[in-house]
Amino acid sequence: MKPVSRRTLDWIYSVLLLAVVLLSWGFVIYASTVAARRQLEKQYPGQTFGMNEYA
Question: Looking at the record's lineage, which domain of life comes first (predicted)?
Fold first, then answer.
């Protein structure tokens, strides 16, 4: 196998780190919306809190 240059390794590591950061922030945002929806359903039972207001 051909050796990989240091510059290429740095680029690959940067892309992997960016992917991990984006996935973790996506999980944080998703978990916070789920928690907020559960809190709203607990405070106001019987009402639907979906993403579409007109449904």
Answer: Eukaryota
**What residue type is 5 in one-letter code?**
S
Q: CB of 21 within 8 A of CB of 12? A: no
Is residue 49 within 8 A of residue 41, CB to CB? The reply is yes
Cα–Cα dist 3/38, whole Å: 52
Structural tokens at position 30: 């998703």
What single-letter DSSP state applies at residue 45? T
Residue-wise pLDDT for 1-55, tens only, equals: 788 899 999 999 999 999 999 999 999 999 999 999 889 888 888 776 665 555 4
The pTM of this model reads 0.65
Q: Which two tokens mark 50? A: 């979906």
